[in-house]
């Protein structure tokens, strides 16, 4: 499988998970989704990551985002490990964890990077839109746990910019001013952004977040 790029269709699949067998597109429906991989069960960083994601469920629900995890470990291993996640982090697993021992999904989503490690899945994240297209990809090495606050922040930006002709500046957080898309003329902006804007440069116009 070639590398998946932004705007590509997220490949569909059927897989065994801790919640039973599921078909990805059926399970996802027209929600947003995060598919994220971790290298291996019974490892320290992965344990903290999965607990953190479980603890963020209310935040994902609020944004209509379904979460699903994957590694190349078999289902028995996942089932044996999930108790540790709750012990350590206080959060019980509350999303499906895919078992991919034959690496079908790892191949489909390019989750094994042989020059890093030829057997373990890397820490990748795919954010997938209601249209089943890939909106964001990121990949971290095994030694670095991900920042899931950043992933929520990106989802806020993706959901906002899907509905309005705006972009979000560096380090933007939900509620802060946004940038009017350069393609929008000042004339059009008067109608679209009635709260007005601050012109820093002809191509950089800040406006209050339009859905607030
Ligand atoms: C970890 O989750 O701690 C980990 C997993 C695989 C390799 C190195 C670290």
Q: What report would you give on this structure?
A:
With 212 residues, the protein is α+β, with helices and mostly antiparallel strands. The chain folds into two domains: 133 residues, 3-Layer(aba) Sandwich (Glutaredoxin); 44 residues, Antioxidant, Horf6, Chain A, domain 2, CATH 3.30.1020. The chain has a seven-stranded mixed beta sheet with strand order 2-1-5-4-3-6-7. Strand 6 and strand 7 form a beta hairpin. The longest helix has 16 residues. 28% of the residues are buried. Bound molecules: benzoic acid. Benzoic acid (BEZ) binds next to helix 2.
What key phrases describe this protein's structure?
212 residues; Glutaredoxin; Antioxidant, Horf6, Chain A, domain 2; binds benzoic acid
* CATH T-level fold name of the largest domain: Glutaredoxin
What is the C-alpha radius of gyration, as a whole number of Å? Answer: 19 Å
Distinct helical segment count: 7
CATH superfamily of the largest domain: Glutaredoxin
From the helix content, strand content and strand pairing, which structural class follows? alpha+beta
Note poorly predicted spans.
Answer: none
The number of distinct structural domains comes to: 2
* Straight-line N-to-C gap: 41 Å
Average pLDDT metric: 97
Ions, cofactors, ligands: which are bound? benzoic acid
CATH classification, class level of the largest domain:
Alpha Beta
Order of helices and strands: EEHEHHEHEHEEHEEHEE
Characterize the overall form. elongated
Strand order of the largest sheet: 2-1-5-4-3-6-7
The CATH architecture category of the largest domain equals 3-Layer(aba) Sandwich
**Total E-strand runs:** 11
Into which percentage range does the β-strand content fall?
A: 15-25%
Helix content: 25-40%
Q: State the major sheet.
A: 7 strands, mixed
């Amino acid at each position: 499988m070639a590398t998946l790029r932004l705007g590509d269709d997220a490949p569909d699949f059927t897989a065994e998970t801790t919640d039973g067998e599921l078909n990805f597109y059926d399970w996802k429906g027209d929600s947003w989704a995060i598919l994220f991989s971790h290298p291996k069960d019974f490892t320290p960083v992965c344990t903290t990551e999965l607990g953190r994601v479980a603890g963020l469920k209310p935040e994902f629900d609020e944004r209509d985002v379904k979460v699903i995890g994957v590694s190349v470990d078999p289902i028995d291993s996942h089932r044996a490990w999930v108790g540790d996640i709750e012990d350590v982090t206080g959060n019980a697993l509350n999303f499906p964890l895919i078992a991919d021992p034959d690496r079908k999904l790892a191949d489909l989503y390019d989750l094994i990077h042989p020059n890093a490690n030829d057997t373990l899945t890397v820490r990748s994240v795919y954010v997938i839109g209601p249209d089943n297209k890939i909106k964001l990809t990121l990949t971290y090495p095994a030694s670095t746990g991900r920042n899931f606050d950043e992933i929520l922040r990106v989802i806020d930006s993706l959901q906002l910019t899907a509905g309005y002709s705006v972009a979000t500046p560096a380090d933007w957080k939900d509620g802060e001013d946004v940038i009017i898309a350069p393609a929008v003329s000042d004339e059009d902006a008067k109608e679209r952004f009635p709260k007005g804007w601050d012109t820093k440069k002809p191509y950089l116009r800040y406006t209050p977040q339009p859905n607030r």
